[in-house]
Amino acid sequence: MGMKACDLSDAVTGKIKATYRLDLLRAAQLLDADGRDALRLDDMDRLFADAGALRLLASAQEREDELIDPLLGIYAERLSLAVIREAAGLPSLRPGDIDRLSALLPTVDLAAALHRAVGYEAAGMMDRIANGTEAEHLGIQLGLRGHLENWLRGDAEIARALRGWAAWAESMSQPYARRLAAPPARESVSDNPFVWGSQGKTAGRVQAALALRQMTALGLEVRKAGLERGAYPADLSAFPGAASPDPFTGKPVAYTLHPDGSATLSIPGGDALYDKLSAGKVPTIGATWTLPPVSAERR
Q: Does a structural domain hold residue 90?
């Protein structure tokens, strides 16, 4: 029995999208590699071009509807933040260069991006449940009895899915660390797998990206202050928002000024929490950033 035209179209479209996303992934990795090479050679023009292209790629994907695209954008954003942070430590940098680096920070509202992607995914699932095609979408072959049971419980499945999607979107309002510290009752877990399964981890990854972005922005301000004054500040009291809890751990950024003149910013427990989220597959997200001492010629 041959494939329907719409099935063939969906298969071809899916393959094209997968190829396109793989190309974007490779492009992000190449830009990251070229940016690091520019850092090594102190080629600031090439560095800013690469970091700018990474920011553009990340922002474009973070604005897409299908969930996989914002996640790809977050991956590119993580690469761009790492390059920006390394560039900020160059001894040849001036305060104006820090302003240029700050302008390269991504600005897409990732919480809104997740809500949009959740809505897109929910609409697709509801449509498939209503039409009795969700099992086929998941690759499950149903017999006559299975199709009949699916149809009979369709309304209940839609209601359950709606509760799950709503809970997933709502999970962005609570730091991932708090959700882990206060797990729901077992009945809630089965009712809302979106929050406590892989989808809940997706919300955690979005929150981790936001936390890194905020810490990087703060670190650039501290670095600029150090370049302007010849030394880093003793604390973060002069920086608005520095005491606010981050969206991933629920804790403010920690700051330490060292005797050698360097300074360290960190998301307390950030790497350990992400290690738990990723089951050890990604043990670090760069939740600690040490700014080098201001070079002697700047003092």
A: yes
Structure tokens belonging to residue 148: 């009949």
Residue 216 lies in a domain: no
Final residue before a domain boundary, out of 89, 108, 127: 108
Mean pLDDT per 10-residue section of the chain, whose length is 299 residues: 50 80 93 94 92 94 90 92 93 91 94 84 70 54 55 60 70 80 48 49 88 95 96 95 91 96 95 84 83 72
Write down which residue in 169, 199, 229 finishes a domain. 199
Residue 238: strand, helix, or coil: coil
Cα angle 206, 22, 56 (rounded to 5 degrees) comes to 55
In angstroms, how far is the first alpha carbon of the chain from the final one?
A: 78
Domain that holds residue 134: 114-199
Residues 6+ apart with CB under 8 A from 6: none
Backbone angles phi, psi at 263, to 5 degrees: -140, 145
**What domain count does the chain have?**
2
* Contact of 180 with 208, CB cutoff 8 Å: no
